[in-house]
């Protein structure tokens, strides 16, 4: 039976899921890495209420029997241990007005907030839900947020891509929406409800599996619209990684469709539907559309853009430098959160040459923001060594393995949920190749759902 407090933090959980990608506003500075993360505000408040309830009832649900949760705890402990082992250099590190110890505290707190504090909130809400409720309620929340994102993104596309400035006053009305401040990108890209196109891509990668699943569960012709909205926003966001990852997710989803005789025709119908939309856009502004496709194809040319694109220079230069730090400290790394202090002497000349980002931001001691690592895997190699990356990769491997094993015996809503989890985790794990933060809400949400499917609470019977 739900208590009044549990009802409130459950509502905050859903509200946080709705707003987790709404970060196009000035934010709250003292929250640091989470200052523009509106969803985090609701998750944090929900967790505080969960703690109050737990103290009152003298119990809290923790999935300590789960192998996935155990691996997560071991990884957390190793991140702390390797920093202790590197204590001498951690305390002597200093860059951008920040000591190594202070940097560790910030990064470790951010890590704990993402994958322990918020995870426990997800778990304590989800473990009390039936499988059908998990599927329908979480998916509905994501759909509602996607409707807002698509309307915003569609208007933004008309203004930024196709040059219909008359729609800008309508678009500006979104500034009255919570956690949004309408701003346009001059590079011919859209960001919709997110601050920048890469953050929009993370949001779309997170919800894509949930939106694709409407094709499996609904009979109405409108079941294709959520998938179309995801693909539309992904394409016009201009995010190369987002486009590649969402296409991979779509391919994985199509393999599930093709294995089921009932859904083979859907693939043909979907291609036909997207073809019609493409023709409509060509008629609307064919020259712009052809130019957009040409630019998109050109941007995906890895060899051509490696040293000609500033963003790619920075991205691969950082990863190159991080790998060299790992080679110097292969077993235990240099300590959690310490990568930025050590990679400065390893920047390759081909990355820094004619690259304003290094001069103005990454190598500038007066610029307080630290350089991004651009890749969680190379970051962990540098900071936690072989021991740390092994634990982390085991967590990823066992999560995908668990989803596949459960999928073989699953039926009904449970099978749909496992397909969603598999598609989402594959996309998010690939996306970690170009981002180095643990602030990936979708990963920890999906792991909580996966553990729930593996360890069904005794007081629930899933129909």
From TrEMBL:
Listed transmembrane segments: 12-32, 38-56, 68-87, 107-126, 199-216, 228-254, 266-284, 376-396, 416-432
Localization per record: Membrane
Topological relation to the membrane, as annotated: Multi-pass membrane protein
Entry-linked InterPro entries: O-antigen_ligase-rel_domated (IPR007016), WaaL-like (IPR051533)
Residue intervals of the O-antigen ligase-related domain: 227-393
Domain of life: Bacteria
Alphabetical UniProt keywords: Membrane, Transmembrane, Transmembrane helix
GO cellular component: membrane
Pfam entry (one): Wzy_C
Protein name, UniProt field: O-antigen ligase-related domain-containing protein
């Amino acid at each position: 039976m739900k208590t009044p407090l549990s009802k409130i933090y459950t509502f905050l959980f859903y509200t946080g899921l709705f707003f987790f990608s709404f970060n196009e506003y000035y934010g709250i500075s003292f929250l640091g890495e989470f200052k523009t993360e509106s969803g985090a505000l609701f998750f944090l408040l929900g967790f505080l209420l969960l703690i109050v309830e737990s103290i009152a009832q003298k119990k809290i649900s923790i999935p300590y029997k789960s192998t996935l949760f155990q691996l997560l705890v071991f990884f957390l402990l190793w991140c702390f241990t390797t920093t202790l082992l590197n204590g001498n250099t951690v305390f002597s590190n200093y860059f951008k007005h920040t000591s190594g110890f202070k940097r560790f505290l910030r990064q470790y707190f951010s890590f704990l907030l993402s994958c322990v504090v918020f995870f426990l909130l997800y778990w304590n809400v989800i473990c009390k839900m039936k499988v059908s409720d998990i599927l329908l309620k979480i998916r509905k929340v994501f759909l509602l947020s996607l409707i807002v994102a698509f309307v915003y993104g569609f208007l933004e596309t008309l203004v930024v891509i196709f040059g219909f400035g008359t729609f800008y006053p309508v678009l500006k009305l979104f500034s009255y929406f919570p956690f949004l401040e309408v701003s346009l990108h001059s590079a011919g890209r859209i960001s919709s409800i997110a601050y920048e196109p890469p953050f929009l891509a993370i949001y779309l990668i997170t919800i894509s599996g949930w939106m694709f699943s409407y094709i499996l569960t609904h009979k109405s012709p409108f079941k294709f619209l959520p998938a179309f909205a995801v693909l539309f926003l992904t394409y016009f966001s201009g995010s190369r990684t987002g486009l590649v990852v969402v296409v991979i997710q779509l391919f994985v989803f199509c393999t599930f469709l093709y294995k089921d005789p009932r859904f083979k025709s859907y693939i043909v119908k979907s291609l036909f539907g997207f073809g019609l939309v493409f023709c409509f856009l060509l008629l609307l502004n064919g020259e712009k559309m052809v130019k957009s496709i040409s630019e998109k194809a050109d941007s995906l040319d890895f060899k051509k853009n490696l040293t000609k694109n500033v963003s790619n220079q920075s991205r691969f230069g950082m990863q190159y430098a991080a790998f060299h730090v790992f080679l110097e400290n292969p077993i235990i790394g240099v300590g959690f959160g310490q990568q930025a202090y050590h990679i400065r002497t390893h920047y390759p000349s081909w990355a820094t040459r004619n690259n304003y980002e290094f001069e103005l931001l990454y190598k500038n001691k007066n610029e307080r923001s630290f350089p991004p690592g651009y890749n969680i895997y190379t970051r962990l190699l540098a900071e936690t060594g072989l021991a740390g990356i092994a634990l982390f990769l085991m967590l990823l491997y066992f999560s995908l393995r668990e989803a596949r094993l459960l999928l073989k015996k699953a039926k009904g809503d449970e099978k749909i949920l496992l397909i969603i989890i598999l598609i989402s985790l594959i996309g998010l794990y690939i996306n970690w190749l170009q981002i180095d933060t643990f602030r990936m809400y979708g990963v920890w949400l999906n792991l909580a759902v996966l553990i729930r499917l593996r360890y069904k609470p005794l007081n629930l019977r899933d129909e």
